[in-house]
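Structure first, sequence second, as always.
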């Protein structure tokens, strides 16, 4: 058996095991994406290796929907509360029915309770996704499968463009400005890059070069405020208040040899970060202080159920 096939089978087996334990507190050891719920500022959506989880202050962590997809890429519409976008791999039930290894671009119109594939099914595996208000709504995605690379997808009709994006390689994270005329950012192993022409061309952001940028997010209230996670032997969160011209530490560092792999920035100073250690942390004051809401893959306190 070839190694990629073996890896897929093992991943599906893990997803199936989780599906058989739905009444237990959802495990969150492998987090791939985060988003604040636009309908409930207290709720955090956590995209994991085995499905989508809702974390709400003072309530047990809960699965959303019945699907236990491996959600490798994930993003949420910032104002339409029920509209979510994702990509990744199927659970055992879906794979047995459809025999499709890559789900392409998934859309949920009911807050993650159900999903439908709208394009690139069995072709794309987006490990980074970002929604932009440009042209009435578009998605940027970095696929690691099929014809790998950067894609731009119009949400009005799900038409797809694969962008040459010369010089852009091994993208780890994407973020688009909340301003329709604003830029798109890409975190890469060699630093943070910026595009001001809809993803066609890219250049380095001088303050964050020659270091891996593993996650990036725009503040939803101030387009000049940007957060980026860098890897310096440990994960370090950086903040820019001038659209990336200068950067300062933002109050969060991981343990050694861990990285910050997902970021979400909401309104009113709300921030969330996930690490390779299986931790999820939350800030309500723009990163000055942090509270651990998931530790080693398990919800902390009331969220543990």
């Amino acid at each position: 058996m070839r190694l990629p096939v073996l890896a897929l089978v093992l991943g599906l087996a893990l997803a199936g095991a989780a599906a058989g334990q739905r009444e237990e507190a959802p495990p969150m050891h492998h987090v791939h994406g985060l988003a604040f719920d636009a309908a409930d500022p207290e709720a955090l959506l956590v995209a994991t290796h085995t499905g989508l989880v809702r974390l709400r202050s003072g309530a047990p962590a809960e699965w959303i929907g019945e699907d236990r997809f491996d959600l490798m890429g994930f993003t949420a519409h910032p104002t339409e509360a029920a509209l979510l976008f994702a990509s990744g791999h199927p659970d055992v039930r879906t794979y047995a029915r459809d025999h499709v290894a890559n789900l392409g671009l998934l859309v949920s119109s009911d807050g993650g309770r159900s999903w439908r594939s709208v394009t690139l099914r069995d072709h794309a595996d987006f490990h980074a996704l970002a929604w932009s208000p440009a042209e009435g709504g578009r998605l940027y995605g970095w696929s690691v499968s099929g014809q790998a690379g950067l894609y731009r997808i119009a949400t009005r009709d799900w038409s797809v463009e694969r962008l040459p994006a010369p010089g852009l390689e091994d993208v780890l994270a994407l973020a688009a400005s909340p301003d329709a005329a604003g830029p798109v950012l890409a975190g890469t192993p060699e630093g943070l890059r910026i595009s001001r022409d809809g993803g066609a061309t890219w250049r380095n952001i001088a303050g964050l070069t020659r270091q891996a940028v593993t996650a990036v997010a725009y503040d939803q209230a101030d387009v000049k405020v940007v957060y980026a996670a860098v890897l310096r032997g440990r994960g370090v969160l950086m903040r820019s208040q001038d659209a990336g011209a200068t950067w300062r530490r933002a109050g969060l560092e991981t343990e050694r040899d861990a990285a910050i792999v997902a970021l979400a920035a909401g309104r009113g100073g709300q921030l969330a970060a996930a690490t390779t250690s299986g931790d999820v942390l939350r800030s309500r004051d723009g990163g000055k202080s942090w509270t651990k809401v998931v530790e080693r893959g398990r919800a902390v306190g009331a969220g543990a159920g």
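Margin note: Confidence is low (pLDDT under 50) at residues 1-10, 12-23.
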